[in-house]
Write a structure and sequence with these properties.
single chain, 302 residues, two-stranded antiparallel ribbon, binds 1,3-dihydroxyacetonephosphate, 8-stranded parallel beta sheet, 15% strand, alpha/beta, 11 helices
Length: 302
């Protein structure tokens, strides 16, 4: 073939750390890694900056609704750009996704990991679909978090307020082993969103599951828990903690306050307002990193 003078463009490789390796390092070190739901470039940058400021690993997490709205490839490119400029371990994770097609698109876009949410399905179907996701994900170097029991509460249009499926610990571990998943999200008494009543928390379930399996255990519904409640989950063996509502509230509260003062002062410049919002989100994320014991733990996971 004659050379036509066109340069071959190398296939782009997404810069990322494996979620599994970040979370296993946390499990070994006795702390938890925060997974923070972002919904735009500002919140994505804020999580990356907070992790850098605190010398902490962190997981940038995206709801299925946000992944659909912004597109898996666009989000992967934004993440890649920011992660390349950071020297702490960061991964990009798809949160609760019951949609096989979107899960596949995220795997193809080169994200670090996905949470395939099969909690609305009966056990046999949940196991079959989860195993199918693992068979797509693993050959592409993508880790899989599994949820076959539902975590109560609706978040970004996914979930239910009633506990529909729950299983014995042994059954949960058996399905996780058979499907080959990398992280396990059991029901632990927490719920997504703000608590209406004090939750009945189940750190003892984490201790029992940890005796049955080495799979990292994920705590959902981080917003609204007290520091001592986080500590009891972490000492029982939780190594990934999800926080979404607190990020949204920090963003919206700061936005309202900054817009209010700009209006009073007659200022009509968006960038200073967005700068204040970003600072508030950075501080919020940073305070969770301190609480989870991951500050100062950025290590050799890459
Ligand atoms: P919160 O919105 O309660 O922080 O829960 C986040 C979560 O678990 C995302 O999966």
């Amino acid at each position: 073939m004659p050379h036509l003078g066109r340069k071959r463009i190398p296939r782009k490789v997404v810069m990322r750390t494996s979620t599994k390796s970040i979370v296993h390092a946390a499990q070994d070190g006795g702390y938890a890694v925060g997974a923070f739901n972002i919904f735009d470039g500002l919140t994505l940058r804020a999580v990356v900056h907070a992790a850098g400021e605190k010398r902490s690993p962190a997981i940038v997490q995206v709801s299925a609704r946000t992944a659909k709205a912004l597109g898996p490839r666009f989000l992967a490119r934004m993440f890649e750009e920011l992660a390349a400029g950071s020297d702490v371990p960061l991964s990009l994770h798809l949160d609760h996704c019951p949609d096989l097609e979107l899960t596949r698109a995220v795997i193809d876009a080169g994200w670090s990991s996905v949470l395939f949410d099969a909690s609305h399905l009966e056990l046999a179907e949940a196991a079959e679909q989860t195993a199918r996701v693992v068979s797509w994900a693993h050959p592409n170097g993508v880790d899989v978090e599994s949820e076959i029991e539902n975590i109560v509460g609706v978040e970004d249009g996914v979930g239910s307020d009633a506990l529909a499926h729950s299983y014995a610990d042994e059954e949960l571990v058996r399905v996780a082993r058979e499907t080959g998943v990398d992280l396990l999200a059991p029901h632990l008494g927490t719920a997504h969103g703000q608590y209406k009543l004090p939750p009945v928390l189940l750190p003892q379930r984490v201790s029992h599951l940890r005796r049955l399996t080495d799979l990292p255990i994920v705590l959902h519904g981080g917003t609204g828990l007290k520091p001592e409640e986080f500590r009891s989950f972490i000492s029982a063996g939780v190594s990934k903690i999800n926080v979404s509502t607190a990020v949204k509230h920090a963003y919206l509260d700061a936005m309202e306050e900054s817009l209010g003062s700009a209006r009073e002062a007659g200022r009509r410049e968006p960038l200073p307002i967005l700068g204040e919002v970003e600072r508030r989100v950075v501080d919020t994320v940073a305070s969770f990193l301190e609480l989870f014991g991951s500050a100062g733990r950025a290590g050799g996971e890459r």
